[in-house]
Amino acid sequence: MLPELNDLNTFREALKGAPGPDESALQGATDRNGQLTKPPGALGRLEDLAIWYAGWRGDARPQISSPQVIVFAGNHGVTAQGVSAFPSEVTVQMVMNFQHGGAAINQLAKAAGAKMDVHALELDRPTADFTKEAAMSEQELLEALRTGWNAVDAGADLLVVGEMGIGNTTPAAAIACALFGGDAADWTGRGTGVDDAGLANKTRVVAEGVALHGSSDGLEVLRCLGGREIAAMAGAIAAARVLRIPVVLDGFICSAAAACLAQVSDNALDHTVAGHQSAEGAHGAVLAKLGKEPLLSLGLRLGEGSGGALAINIVKSAVACHSGMATFAEAGVSDG
Fold it and tell me: Which residues contact 110 (CB under 8 A, 6 or more apart)?
């Protein structure tokens, strides 16, 4: 059961006190993997994925039947600084597209057999421009975290969270820079496709925001530099950790949200795998900092949870092989 999120301290304590994987299931899955009709290690990372999944679900021979994809949408005051090639109105238009089933994520969720939910967070009230003040108050951060926290279906057995928010690669870059150090240019990319002048301006904005709101605390960085949809993703990933629901991380923005949680608790992301490495330049660097090796690298840079949803089928295939294959004894095959 998830506790009610009445304050940020409750969120911190829930994340720090979240249970780990089931050791008995891990051992059972490891033992079963060694008995399947294949040479040891022949299925590569699929074997590790299946064992990892089994531990979090507490079942040595699990199934995946109820994946969930959640897309959170938010708008950002920092877009007033000219950091995006598209206007904020596109966020609202894309939410309608999600709701009518017309976006890429709708097709990918359907192909993966996943239930898809969409949550728009106060699109008519963008966060503050973080070059001038904190993006959110503590109460606004809590409300956004709570949206994500409560959006997770306790009956889901795999989760992907995605986002829509014009300009949100800028707060993601600022979060990464604040948490991991280095220059703003190391973390700032072209996002929706800004030109060279736009990239220079965007880098300036990231540098100014980080200089104004320097902090090593993950939630404070999220509050000052993030956005409502980024905080909601963090809330959903944290809720899944408490519920022991495995999570497939999406791209750069999702990974920035996850990185904030990793600063709260060292084990906050043990239930996650990286679905893919996107074409956003700094995504690979964030994954390296988080110790996550991507399952796919297809040049995607759409967001929406698209890369994570695509990787659902990789995890499902890993689990299907692990749970569905016969053992040597069952098949009457000599194991040598």
Answer: 116
Cα(71)–Cα(94) distance, integer angstroms: 11
Distance CA 336, CA 334 (A): 5
Two structure tokens written together for 253: 């923005």
Contact 65, 157 (CB under 8 A): yes
Side-chain half-sphere CA neighbours of 291 within 13 A: 8
What does the block give as tokens for 6? 């009445």
Tell me the catalytic residues. Answer: 304
Decide if 269 contacts 225 (C-beta within 8 A). no
Distance (Å, rounded) from C-alpha 142 to C-alpha 291? 27
Tokens, residue 245: 């629901």
DSSP string, 287-333: HHHHT---SB-------TTHHHHHHHHHHHHHHHHHHHSPBHHHHT-
- What pLDDT score does 279 carry? 95
- d(CA 265, CA 105) in angstroms, rounded, equals 30
Q: If DSSP codes are grouped into helix, strand and coil, which group holds residue 156?
A: coil
**Looking at the whole model, is its pTM more than 0.90?**
yes
Name the DSSP class of 67: E
258-271 pLDDT tens trace:
999 999 999 999 99
For residues 169 and 84, what is the distance between their CA atoms, to the nearest angstrom?
9
CB contact at 8 A, 152 and 240 = yes
| Cα 214 from Cα 236, distance rounded (Å) | 25
